[in-house]
Amino acid sequence: MNNRYETPSKNRNLPHNALLPTTVYVAPYSFMGVPFRYMSKDNEEEITARCPHFADDEDAPFRTSWVFGARRQLDILNWFSSEISPEGSLAVFYCKNGNPVDEDCHRLIVGMGEVTKVNGIMTYNSRSEVTYPMWELAMEHSIRPNLSESRGFLLPYHEYLALKDEYFIDKLGITKFQAIDQIKLSLDKLGNSQRIFNELSYGCEYVSNHSMLIILNAAYECLRNVKSHGLVVGDWDRQLRWIDEQISKVKSMIGPFPAFAECLRAIGINYAYLIEQDLRREGHCGLKDNPWIAFSKLVKGEIQIHNAVYKSELAHYKATWMSTSEEGKKLLELLSRFEISQEVVEKWYDDDTSYSRILENPYIISEESELNDSRYVTTEMVDLGVIPDSEIQGDWLPEHPSRIDTRIDERRIRSSITFKLKWQLSEGDTLLSITEITDYLEESLKVYDVKLPKNYIANKRNFMEETLAFVDGVSDPEANACDSALQLKEYFEIEKFLRSKFKARAAKSVKNPIKENWESIVKSSINGFDENNPRSVAAVKDQIKALEMFCDKRLSVLTGPAGTGKTTVVKAFLDSSQIRNEGVLLLAPTGKARVRLGQMADGVTAFTIAQFLTKRGFFNWDKMECCLPSNYENKRCSEYKNIIIDECSMLTSKEFFILLNALDLKTVQRIILIGDPYQLPPIGEGRPFADLYNFLNNPKQEANLRLAVTRLETVVRTIKSGDSDVLTLASWFSGSKPAKDSDKIFDKIESGNLSNDLMVYTWTDETQLRTSLNDVLKKELKADDNTLSSALLRRLGLDDIDAAYRKPELVERFQVLTPVIHPMWGAFELNNMFQEWVGHGKAQYSTEMSTEYICYADKVIQLANTTKKSNKGDKKQLSNGQIGFVKFANGKEASVVFSGYPECFFKYNSIKGDRESELELAYAITIHKSQGSDFDTVLVVLPKTGRILSRELIYTALTRAKAKLILFIEDSPSWLREFTKPQYSVLGRRNTNLFEYSVREEKTKIPYVEGLIHKTLKDGLIVRSKSEVIIANMLHQRGIEFEYERTLEENGKRCIPDFTFEDASGDPIILEHLGMLNVPSYAEAWKRKLEFYKSIGYEEGENIFTTRDDDNGSIDSIAIKKVIDEIEDLI
Fold first, then answer.
1. Alpha carbon 858 to its chain's center
2. Which of 498, 649, 804, 817 has its CA 20 to 30 A from that of 976?
3. What is the DSSP letter of 754?
4. How far is Cα 243 from Cα 349, in angstroms, rounded to an integer?
5. In the prediction, which pLDDT does 1075 show?
């Protein structure tokens, strides 16, 4: 195969403009590797330290972040390729973010093989004598399609993805994604090592021997699972033997002290890398020898390195070494057994109080590492240094007390548990059941053929409790709750703190409540208020209740679906002069939510939470996370008596914890939390807002606590126009029971008989999706092929750049949403389509941003929280998810205007190669990125499969549109209803212990969550309300057969009853539970549904029965029993 290469700098000034496109032959079973990391100027210091003899770089005649000089490029490429040995080096092939196996998997290894040939450095053809090396290094590998001939393998992801879900259930008794997880070679199976993450990040990079050993061990277990599944034929035994051979080979190449040079650097020995190279090259220290002995002899003058550049430094090195304590030397020798960085060594060496505890338990280095830190030390990294293995350590086996003689040593097991608990935080869990942790440990020990003793964790409780918290719960097998769990002590304290503050403040009233005529204020704010309309009256009643709650409670919660008037309530509250005089702090998690919140109060500035925390010193910009600073008690904010926080469902437990600690709560009168508990949970641990809402809203809750929550039920925006199809459909995906006649929405979708705010289309493949999108855009915009570009720019607000510069919010009028980034229906491909349709591309006015080109007038999104200087010279905070447009672009840089910052722009330099950008196209964005925002018109592309799909994801997408929603659904809309079921709640699957113990017993089960998950005694049945649980359990205990939410069809008409039974003749009997008859809109819906039942031959007391909640949400079990008695008599 022939490939054609062009230099990225071909349009530059001499000498690059002399370089010609060059065609090279690529042999079968080859790959091209580009060592981007070493070509980046960001890493020049490291390269120079390792290879000081390399040619100096030349000054480039243009701004660039890459090495420019041809001689230095050639030195780097020759050095890099010289370290790769044919038949001796291994190649690991991987995908970065956005693969079809798992959208959220940041690094996915797809295969491994041997490097069989390394070709020479290639150069570009040139029209002059000057040329430059190609960065692409051509190498050949040993992987073959026929496994019986292959030395190496590709994991069979594609084969697994091609099989139907039912096939996995039938063959293995597990789901497709559970099976894929068992063969998936991802970072979580590699200890989430940041080192390995970096090694799989720069196109082509060295993988250290220690990392390779960890990868090979994990690969062995993945292939064993492939073999045991028996779904993909091939000689997997041969590949398992190959892995075993590679493990032995890699061990032979590892020395016992891999971080020797890093430890020298940590104690101030410069030229550490050269010293180690010289000691080994001169024969003073072999691969399996102890370099500390050789170093000691060197500084003492017992051995000589001739012509060493550091000769004049040896006296200083000797003084440094001789002044190091014996315990310090022992610690350095221990630390050098782990493949860790200089910074990690410094952390522990500089703290001499930690010497003895690290020597006694080296796994503390891993336990006290932060998972998101680039210097994170995994349990597996420590294993390689402290578990005796003569193949690695030769004669220098680890010694007691650091030595670990078994993989079930309590020190190692606790370290593994700590990693798992930290990892699960990113999955949303604040604690894990001991059963699930035990399953994890047993699975991780399989590769070593080691078993975990029964009741191991319970038997080691005293040791575990030194760093972990045991949490005891109520054993309830019917709810999948278990009797104990483990939690990181930090999060045990966080949940304890939040529980205490939330409960205490919600129970108390302020000392000086506000007195206002809220009724007149609210009535005047409702467009089309009609005192004869029950829905108008109900809306006023709800909003007055919310305002009185704001005034009275020290902590209050306001929720409600879109359109119910939350904005109106907050605006009315902020119009109070007393509130203004007391001081108001407005906070929101995103830039768009901040702008919207700020618009509710003239003269009051709203902040993003990151802005506020930064101002008070509670935000770490290096780690991009909130934190408690030292002496934080003296940095608390006491300027405001009223705190209003919007979009609270996006906040993690830790973010709530830090935020409350950043406030001087003694001076705060009111904390008002606003949000929707049924949206996507926060990116991170917990679901504190949803837990708080369900705790306060429990019908059994104390009266004074129930007064701290208000849910607005009446949709104000439809009082005059009638019901919204968008909001009706969205109600099915909320965590509450939808209105009684809302089931008609599914019929309306299938028939196409929809109102003006909802349109639904279907697609089956990439071609049809593209065609259908194009056709619908032309229909929606009243355009044709010739006018689509201008019409689309007009709808996007980008037809007049000067107007958009003055009012950048115009670009948020129209937005495309999708669940994912990279498949054909993902944001990346959709952005390419829209960029083409608006007439942009790799044109003269474009800037390269990693994997994309952004052009003049393109819609873009900011990808990280940062501060950036504007063209006016002042620094402004830009938020992850902030949308804007490109005002100017060329090959070097782009100027971007963002929503919320009119008449100013920010410059972004071009980013080439494999590096990540802070900016990307935003015609289409993921649903996650849309949280906290709303748009006039929203177009949502929904695939029918994918592990990321959930009830909350669909609900969040449906509720982003203010005026119109266009749905593009794969295949048929019929599958949508399945995702309305509680089983598909990602929120309900999270383990938390904020107000009650909610922990799943096993990984695949769903925990019982008050207000979120309503489990019944009937096996596998989860219902939508607490009242329905009572009914279902009573039916089950009496042995009465029933079906829940079975579609009923009569005379071509359909509906979805709550419970369906069969009478003796085989005809259906219906039981409907009426939960909110005190809400006019609900009562109206039930009246319409009852009329529908009558129209198809159903009569109350004969074949349709009802039960109901009291106005306060309670339920009468005796009344339910009487109704069930009547039904039982008929069946």
1. 26
2. 649
3. -
4. 37
5. 86
Q: Who contacts 11 (Cβ-Cβ below 8 Å, separation ≥6)?
A: 17, 891
What ranges in 447-487 are assigned the alpha helix state H? 456-459, 461-464
Q: Do the bridges between strand 1059-1062 and strand 1068-1074 make them parallel or antiparallel, or are there none, so unpaired?
A: antiparallel
Residues in the chain predicted with pLDDT less than 50, given as ranges, are 10, 477-481
User: What are 964's strand-pairing partners?
Assistant: 937
Strand partners, 894: 889, 908
Cβ neighbours around 71 below 10 Å, total = 13
Q: What angle (nearest 5°) sits at the alpha carbon of residue 931, between those of residues 761 and 560?
A: 90
Query: 828 and 834 in contact (C-beta within 8 Å)?
Result: no
Looking at residue 991, its pLDDT comes to 95
Contact 724, 718 (CB under 8 A): yes
Residue with tokens 């709550």: 1058
- In 3D space, the residue among 980, 971, 925 whose CA is nearest the CA of residue 949 turns out to be 980
Q: Give, for 773, the enclosing helix (H) or strand (E).
A: helix 766-781
Provide the CATH number for the domain formed by 504-514+527-716 in this structure: 3.40.50.300
Q: Is 950 helix (H, G, I), strand (E, B) or coil?
A: coil
Residue type, 1127: I
- Beta bridge pairs of residue 938: 815, 965
Whether 700 and 651 have beta carbons less than 8 Å apart is answered as no
Query: In this structure, what token pair is assigned to residue 884?
Result: 């804007």
The owner of tokens 């042995």 is 1039
Q: Phi and psi dihedrals of 256, rounded to 5?
A: -75, -15
Residue 1061 near residue 1041 (C-beta atoms within 8 A): yes
Cis bond before residue 388 (omega within 30° of 0) = no
Of 842, 780, 783, 844, the closest CA to residue 816 belongs to 780
Question: 1013: which DSSP letter?
Answer: B
Q: What is the pLDDT of residue 528?
A: 66
Angle, CA 417 vertex, CA 691 and CA 457 arms, to 5°: 100
Report the distance separating Cα 885 and Cα 902, nearest Å.
Answer: 12
Q: Nearest 5°: CA angle at 853, between 850 and 854?
A: 115
Count of residues making up the chain: 1131
**3-state SS class at 537:** helix
Q: Do 383 and 199 form a contact (C-beta atoms < 8 A)?
A: no
pTM: 0.87
Give the Cα separation of 1091 and 365 in Å (integer).
69
Q: What is the pLDDT of residue 7?
A: 66
Type of residue at 696: L
- Give the burial class of 23: count Cβ atoms within 10 A of its Cβ; 0-12 exposed, 13-18 middle, 19 or more buried: exposed
CATH architecture of 1016-1130: 3-Layer(aba) Sandwich (3.40)
Type and span of the H or E element at 921: strand 919-921
Domain coordinates of the chain in residue numbers? Answer: 2-252, 504-514+527-716, 1016-1130
